[in-house]
Structures are given as structure tokens and as C-alpha cells.
Amino acid sequence: MQALTVAATGEGFWATAAPIIPHPLEFFFGLAIFGLFYIFVAKTIMPRLEEIYAKRADAIEGGMHKAEEAQAQAQAALEQYRAQLVEAQAQASSIREEAKAHGAQILAEMREQAATEAARITETAQKHIAAERQQAVVSLRNEIGRISTDLAGRIVGESLHDDTRQRGIIDRFLAELESGDVVREKVGSSQGEDA
Asked: Which of 6, 72, 108, 116 has its Cβ near the most Cβ atoms within 10 Å?
């Protein structure tokens, strides 16, 4: 009876051996449930998790690959930009040099035009001065002739206003004056000698 009492109360080998060791029925039942649960997880949940993991790994690798491609494209764009910048600087320098040369050419043309215009103005002014000089000479000649005629007429006492005669006298007098052949005559002494 004592064996029955021990069996009914759960005391005995299993109860006294170790409180951590489970009862064999519980152990085998727990093992069977764990096995069923493991099979269920391995057959249904693990393939799904593996599929999700593979998709995620592919997405990460694809993202990394895309990032590398984007970085390579950015590097290529940077190199292209730098090449374009160097080309633009060279082109700007070329345009600047061309503009300087064109400006120097325009300046030389303007100087040449100014020199031509100055020569034309100088020539026109010289012609104008020569014409005015000629006009002044003619005017002075006429004025000198008129004054000389008036003076000679007063000295002689008769009018010397005959145009033809007056012009001849004036022209002869001015020609002698210009050539330096005018001889001063003493009016009083030649008459005194004749007397």
C-alpha cells in the first residue's frame, strides 16, 4: 500500500530523483509536440522566411548595384562636366583673343580712317587758305592800285581813272615790286638836274 500511496501522490523515484527532470510522459509528449511544431515550421514558415530573406537580399544587392551604377554615372557626369568646363575655358580664351585681335583691327582701321580724314581736311583747308590768299592778293592788288592811282592822280594833278591804263600801270608796278626791280627815283633831284 505504501507503493500505491507513493504512486498516487506522485512521490517515488521520479519525485525524489531530481525536481528538474521531467516526467517521462511529459518528456515524450513535449518531444512529440516539438517535433510536430518543428516540421510545421520547417515546411510552411521557413520556406516563406527564406523567400522573404532571398527577396530582401536581392533587393539589397540590387540597391547596392544601383547605387554603384549611380555613383559610376555620377563620376562619368563629373568627368564630362570637367571636360566641358576645360573646353569652355579654352573656347572663352579663344573668343577673348579673337575679340582682342578684332578690336586691334578695328582700332587700326579707325586710325587709318582718321589719318585719311585728317589729310583730307588739311588738304581742303590748304586749298581754302590758298583760295583766300589768292582772293586777298587780288583784293589787295585792286586796293593798292586804287590807292596808288588816287595818289598818283593827286601828285600829277589829273585823273588816272581810265580802267585799262590804270590796270596796266598797276600790273607793271606790282610785277616790278614782286621781282624786286623797283628803283627808287628821286623826284626832286631828277627835275633839279634837268633844270
From this structure: 6
